[in-house]
Amino acid sequence: MFTQVTKGIKVSVQTTFEGTFFKNYKMHYAFGYTISIENQSQDTVQLTARHWDIFDALKDLETIDGEGVIGRKPVIKPGKSHTYSSGCLLASPIGAMRGHYQMVNFTTSEEFEVDVPTFKFSAPFAVN
Question: pTM of this prediction?
Answer without folding.
Answer: 0.92
